[in-house]
């Protein structure tokens, strides 16, 4: 029995988190612990769901029903990261301007952040399918 299906999303989350921390630390020129969380480059959500899409595709083929289910779930998550969560981010910024309530403003993702997250996820899924 393989544990790849259990481990892959956690590996993708870890790799993406470390990458995001490194990118943010380089941009800020200091350890960017305050920027850990939602939003930013690359997208954790995109990486996690695409790692499973890739793992299933590389391990079982794209004609497997599980691939279709994973791809559908990934599509929903990617839409959410780009549209709904980006709107929540705009609302948080507007609310914080009116009344500094400390709402987190980095929530959604840009297309490049989503794309890089997808690439990281595909890479992790590929590696895990051959482990």
From TrEMBL:
It comes from the Bacteria. The chain crosses the membrane at residues 6-23, 35-58, 64-81, 111-129. Coiled coil: none annotated. InterPro entries: DUF212. Keywords: Membrane, Transmembrane, Transmembrane helix. PANTHER family: ACID PHOSPHATASE/VANADIUM-DEPENDENT HALOPEROXIDASE-RELATED PROTEIN, ACID PHOSPHATASE_VANADIUM-DEPENDENT HALOPEROXIDASE-RELATED PROTEIN. This is Divergent PAP2 family protein. It comes from Erwinia sorbitola.
């Amino acid at each position: 029995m393989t544990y790849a299906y259990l481990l892959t999303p956690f590996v993708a989350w870890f790799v993406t988190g470390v990458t995001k921390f490194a990118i943010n630390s380089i941009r800020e020129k200091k350890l960017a612990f305050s920027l850990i969380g939602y939003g930013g480059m690359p997208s954790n959500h995109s990486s996690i769901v695409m790692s499973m899409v890739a793992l299933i595709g590389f391990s079982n083929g794209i004609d497997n029903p599980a691939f279709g289910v994973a791809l559908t779930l990934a599509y929903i998550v990617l839409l959410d990261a780009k549209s709904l969560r980006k709107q929540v981010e705009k609302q948080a910024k507007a609310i914080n301007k009116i009344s500094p309530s400390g709402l987190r403003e980095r929530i959604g993702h840009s297309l490049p952040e989503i794309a890089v997250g997808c690439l990281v996820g595909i890479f992790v899924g590929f590696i895990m399918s051959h482990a």
